Amino acid sequence: MKRALIHAALASPAVLLALGWQYGRLGVDPQKTLIWETGIWTINLLILVVLMPSAARWAHWPAVIGCRRAVGLWAFVYASTHFLFFVTFLLGWDIMRLGSEIVERPYVLVGFNAWLILLAMAVTSTRGWVRRLGRRWRRLHTLVYVALVLAVVHYGLMIRSDWGWPVAYASVVLLLVGLRVFRRGAPAPESAKRREMGLR
Ligand code: HEM
């Protein structure tokens, strides 16, 4: 029941977008709106994934960590949908053009690399892969920070005016990466216990 509620909450932006599409509420260029919104929701969920361990610690609520995989997988779903919309609406499934877009447009290349990281994380998110990769699993999944940085660079590179939101997102991501680096440099005494709880 709890799991179903979490998935319902994470799916709600997609449902709202589908309804908006169905009832013609996505503005003058609905296809662009779908690309933009799925991109934004990917970043929102990636920020949430990164914030969850700290939130669990501050709120003394380790159960939050149990939802982290669902949030991460939904981030991958939104990123893949965003990619799919790009290939469908902007490229009309001209796969040769996808190659040239990736090579010629830096923001597409950066977004594509962010998506590849999320793909690797989604594939290795099962118990089997956690066991198989051992310590390397944790290192691989720390790449969520790299994906987040690439995501805001991708966002920033395509903006020509109205820098408000990209700068706001970049500041949040910079802060999160800074905190991560700071925490790595100064491990807390009870870090082993935290790691056992999956709180990092
Ligand atoms: C983790 C992966 C990704 C994230 C987080 C992401 C995020 C975003 C964001 C936030 C926007 C701008 C939304 C706005 O202006 O309000 C955007 C736009 C865009 N993204 Fe991505 N993106 C990702 C991957 C990709 C990939 C793999 C591609 C294509 C190969 C791609 C192609 C585009 C394009 C073409 C636009 C601009 C559409 C337009 O305005 O014409 N993105 N993305």
Q: How many domains make up the coordinates?
A: 1
Q: How is the biggest beta sheet arranged?
A: none
Kindly report the average pLDDT value.
Answer: 92
Strand content: under 5%
- Poorly predicted runs of 5 or more residues: 196-200
Radius of gyration: 18 Å
Oligomer: single chain
- In whole angstroms, the N-to-C terminal distance is 27 Å
Order of helices and strands: HHHHHHHHHH
Shape: globular
Number of E-state strands: 0
Derived structural class: mainly alpha
Could you name the key traits of this structure?
10 helices, 200 residues
Protein topology:
Elements: H1 2-22, H2 30-58, H3 68-90, H4 95-104, H5 106-123, H6 127-133, H7 135-141, H8 144-157, H9 164-185, H10 191-196
Helix pairs in contact: 1-2, 1-3, 2-3, 2-8, 2-9, 3-5, 4-5, 5-8, 6-7, 8-9
The structure holds protoporphyrin IX containing FE.
In words, what does this structure look like?
With 200 residues, the chain is mainly alpha-helical. The protein has one domain. Helices cover 78% and strands 0% of the residues. The chain contains ten helices and no strands. The protein is globular. The two termini are 27 Å apart. Protoporphyrin IX containing FE (HEM) binds next to helix 2, helix 3, helix 5 and helix 8. The site of protoporphyrin IX containing FE has 23 residues, from helix 2, helix 3, helix 5 and helix 8.
